[in-house]
């Protein structure tokens, strides 16, 4: 394609405060409709907003984690528009002077890192939620006034894949600092994707469309892939892009026009008179900085340095805080960080996927995993046995050492026992033995597999390999 894709993302994040951003109503999810709505939520005349300190604190935490410059003064503005989910007819938001600006985060695309700039981070309130029925619509105001943080990137991404990586990296940071559930399916994280094309080499931005209504990161990627193709086809055929908002239709896998794009002046922004501007106290920000945990990127770098993991493995180990803590405990207990990482990325990750659980629900303790890894390292059990042992440890909760003794799973290195199994296997698989003798080196692997089967995975595979070769060559 002779076009370059340009993407900028707007992410709305529900901050997990106990009460709403401008009133004391609860933010609990799933309560009876309209049971958490007061005159402020409902926009009654004369009701007054009061800023929730915790919401401001969580917003500032995000801004610091994203390396933003934080505003000296906090101000709010009214964004005016009419919609049934917004009875005040305006949303309290921030316009000219957002909470924070000019941040950045790194994404890893294959072997290279790319810096994606964050344009702004601002605080605003959520709206009510509409439920459209056949002949009527219902509205629940429990959601109105839940604190939202809008995180707007610069148009620095050049493929749907990069947009996906940005969202993944952002979510990882947000989860580390524990500011939101970050659940796209449940709507606590929402993403609008802006995309345009331009001729390769051009510096001016092309006309963009904004896509809404995706409910997973994969959905964002798929919607952007569709939209990039749609725009390219249009441009190839001499058409022009209409600046508009489009909805992603996940069932059909297409984007459909929703409305022509509104401009900032349509909203008649003006300063919110009910919330006086104020300065951040230095101690407020200092306390947040002091409490900031180690973030995914520095953690990844430390894993490379301290545990000699590859960049790739370290990034996976550091991307989720639960996994990172788990990995670090194992690595310290078993002196073999690389193996611990391999098991976490391999069998354990597969187990969690199969059972639809996350690491915090995993009953396998780091000490049990490291106990098992130590037994592999010291040759007490084979890697093959460990695979089934792992599941048994999880299911029974027993210590690996105990289980190995109970079930007699120790590795067999006894020459006589191995020789007996090998003789049997050769007798039963004459064809493969012949193949090996006539030069097919691979045939030996098949025979090793058979010996492993016969010994229920307990035979020392290296020894078996060695003995089989000698035997087949007639050395012994
Ligand atoms: P709007 O006022 O339409 O919301 P903004 O300029 O505020 O537009 O940008 C919103 C988002 O769209 C930002 O993430 C920005 O990076 C992105 N963006 C702006 N212009 C383009 C463009 N031409 N192509 C792709 N993304 C863009
Ligand atoms: Mg926008
Ligand atoms: Zn309220």
Topology, element by element:
Elements: E1 3-14, H1 53-65, E2 69-70, E3 73-74, E4 77-80, E5 90-93, E6 100-109, E7 112-125, E8 129-132, E9 137-140, E10 147-153, H2 160-176, E11 189-199, E12 209-212, H3 217-236, E13 244-249, E14 254-260, E15 270-271, E16 278-279, H4 282-291, H5 296-307, H6 311-319, H7 321-334, H8 337-354, H9 366-377, H10 383-396, H11 400-407, H12 415-428, H13 430-437, H14 443-454, H15 461-472
Parallel strand pairs: 12-13
Antiparallel strand pairs: 1-10, 1-11, 2-6, 3-16, 4-5, 4-15, 6-7, 7-10, 8-9, 11-12, 13-14
Mean pLDDT: 90
How would you write the strand order of the largest sheet? 2-6-7-10-1-11-12-13-14
What is the domain total for the residues?
3
In the predicted model, the low-confidence regions spanning at least 5 consecutive residues are none
Question: In angstroms, what is the radius of gyration?
Answer: 29 Å
What structural class do helix, strand and pairing data support? alpha+beta
Distance between the termini: 64 Å
Q: What share of the residues does DSSP label as strand, in percent?
A: 15-25%
The biggest sheet amounts to: 9 strands, mixed
Q: Report the principal-axis shape.
A: elongated
Could you tell me which ligands this complex binds, including any ions or cofactors? adenosine-5'-diphosphate, magnesium ion, zinc ion
Helix count equals: 15
Helix content: 40-55%
Q: Name the quaternary structure.
A: single chain
DSSP, total strands: 16
């Amino acid at each position: 394609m002779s076009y370059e894709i340009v993407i900028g993302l707007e992410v709305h994040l529900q901050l997990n405060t106990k009460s709403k951003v401008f009133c004391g109503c609860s933010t609990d999810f799933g309560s009876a409709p309209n049971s958490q709505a007061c005159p402020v939520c409902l926009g009654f005349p004369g009701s007054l907003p009061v800023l929730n300190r915790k919401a401001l604190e969580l917003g500032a935490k995000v801004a610091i984690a994203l390396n933003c410059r934080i505003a000296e003064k906090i101000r709010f503005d009214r964004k005016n528009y009419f919609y049934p989910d917004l009875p005040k007819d305006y949303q309290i938001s921030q316009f000219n002077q957002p909470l924070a600006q000019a941040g950045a985060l790194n994404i890893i695309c294959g072997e290279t890192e790319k810096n994606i700039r964050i344009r702004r981070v601002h605080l605003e309130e959520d709206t009510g939620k509409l439920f459209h029925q056949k002949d009527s619509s219902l509205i629940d105001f429990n959601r109105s006034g839940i604190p939202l943080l809008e995180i707007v990137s610069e148009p620095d991404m050049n493929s749907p894949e990069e947009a996906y990586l940005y969202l993944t990296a952002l979510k990882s940071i947000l989860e580390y600092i524990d500011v939101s559930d970050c659940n796209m399916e449940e709507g606590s994280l929402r993403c609008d994707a802006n995309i345009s094309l331009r001729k390769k080499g051009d510096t001016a931005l092309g006309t963009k469309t904004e896509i809404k209504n995706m409910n997973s990161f994969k959905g964002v990627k798929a919607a952007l892939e569709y939209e990039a193709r749609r725009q390219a086809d249009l441009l190839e055929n001499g058409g022009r892009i209409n600046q508009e908002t489009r909805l992603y239709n996940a069932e059909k896998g297409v984007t459909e026009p929703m409305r022509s794009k509104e401009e900032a002046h349509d909203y008649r922004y003006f300063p919110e008179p009910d919330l006086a501007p104020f300065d951040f106290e230095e101690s407020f920000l200092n306390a947040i900085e002091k409490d900031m945990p180690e973030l995914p990127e520095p953690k990844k770098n430390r894993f490379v340095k301290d545990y000699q993991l590859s960049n790739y493995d370290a990034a996976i180990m550091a991307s989720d805080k639960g996994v990172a803590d788990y990995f670090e405990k194992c690595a310290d207990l078993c002196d073999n960080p690389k193996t611990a990482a391999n098991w976490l990325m391999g069998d354990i990750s597969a187990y969690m996927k199969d059972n639809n659980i996350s690491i915090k629900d995993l009953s396998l303790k780091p000490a049990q995993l490291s106990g098992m890894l130590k037994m592999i390292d010291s040759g007490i059990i084979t890697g093959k046995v460990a695979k089934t042992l792992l599941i048994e440890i999880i299911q029974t909760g027993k210590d690996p050492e105990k289980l190995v003794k109970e079930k007699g799973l120790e590795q067999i290195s006894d020459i006589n026992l191995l020789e007996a199994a090998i003789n049997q296997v050769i007798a039963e698989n004459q064809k493969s033995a012949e193949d090996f003798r006539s030069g097919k080196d691979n045939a030996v692997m098949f025979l090793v597999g058979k010996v492993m089967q016969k010994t229920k995975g307990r035979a020392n595979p290296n020894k078996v390999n060695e003995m089989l070769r000698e035997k087949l060559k007639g050395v012994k």
